[in-house]
Amino acid sequence: MPRLSEVIAALENLWPAERAESWDAVGTVAGDPDQEVTRVLLAVDPVQEIADEAVELGADLLVTHHPLYLRGTTTVAATHFKGRVVHTLIRNGIALHVAHTNADTADPGVSDALAAALGLRVTRPLVPDATDPDGRRGLGRICEPDRPLTVRALAALAAARLPATAQGIRIAGDPEAPVRTVAVSGGSGDSLFDHVRAAGVDAFLTADLRHHPASEFTQPGAHRPPALLDAAHWATEWPWCELAASQLDEISDRHGWDLRVHVSHTVTDPWTAHAASSPTEPLGAPN
C-alpha cells in the first residue's frame, strides 16, 4: 500500500501547485505523509456532508476541487463548519488534498471533462497557457459538436448529460440560433467573456453568470454575440471528479498500489429547489 506522500506526489504530477492562480489555495490541507492510503474519495466541495461520506466509506484520502480555506483562516476550531470538517477528517485519519485552478488549466482538466460529458470534441484551449509549448493547457476549451445543434438543443443536451440540479440550464440569446462551435468552462465563467467574443464561437456554456456582465455581453453589435448557457457551478465541475478518478486508477495500476478510488455522487450544489415563473402579461399592461 502506498504512503500518503507517494499518492500526493502522483497528484502533484497531474496538477502541479505552481500552475494554480496566485490567489488560490491548493495542495494538502491535512494528513500524515507516512500514513497508508487504500481508499480515496473525490468530490467537488469539502463540506461536512462529504467529510461524513469519506468517514462512512473508510477513505484515507479526500481529494476535492474546491479549497476548504480559499481566503485563509486563523482558527480551525470546531465552532465553525470548516473547523468541524477539519476535526472530522483528522479524527478519522483522513487526509485532504485540493486541486483547483491547477486542475482547471491541466491537460486534461476540468473543461475537458465538461466537454466530454457533453460529447463535444475539443479543438483548443479558450485561454491558452503561455508556458505550454504544446498549446494544450489553459482555461476553458473551444469545442465542436459532432453535428450542428441549435442553442435550445445544446441546452437540452447539457440538462440531460450533466448532474441534475435545481437550476437546470438558463439561456441568453436566440434559442433557435445554430451552434457549430462552442466554448465551455467549468465553474464561474463571465471573466472569460472577452476571450469568448474573440474566439468567434456560437455559444458559451459555463456557470455563475451575473446579470450585468451577461446583459452587456449579449447586446447586439456588428456581429451576433454568442449565446450564453448558464449551468450550476457544481454540475459543470463534477465531471472532473470522474476524470480524476480514472487518472488515479491508472496511476494505481501502474504502480501496483491497488487503490480503491470512488467518486461522490452527493449533490453539494447549494440550491435545492426552483420555482419557474408563470407566463404573465407585460408589466404595466392593462387588465
Written account of the structure:
The chain is an alpha/beta fold and 287 residues long. Helix content is 32%, strand content 21%. It contains nine helices and 13 strands. The chain has helices at 4-14, 48-57, 81-91, 101-104, 110-117, 151-161, 193-199, 211-217, 233-255, and strands at 27-30, 39-43, 61-64, 95-98, 121-128, 138-144, 149-150, 170-172, 178-179, 182-188, 203-207, 227-231, 260-263. A six-stranded mixed beta sheet has the order 5-6-10-11-12-8, sandwiched between helices. Strand 10, helix 7 (193-199) and strand 11 form a beta-alpha-beta unit. Helix 2 runs parallel beside helix 3 (81-91) and helix 5 crosses helix 9. The chain is globular, with a radius of gyration of 20 Å. The mean pLDDT is 95.
CA radius of gyration is 20 Å
The proportion of residues forming helix, as a percent range, comes to: 25-40%
The profile of the biggest β sheet is: 6 strands, mixed
Unreliably modeled segments = none
The portion of residues forming beta strands comes to 15-25%
Class by alpha and beta content: alpha/beta
Strand order, largest beta sheet: 5-6-10-11-12-8
- N-to-C series of helices and strands: HEEHEHEHHEEEHEEEHEHEHE
Cα(first) to Cα(last) distance is: 74 Å
Based on DSSP secondary structure assignment, what is the total number of beta strands? 13
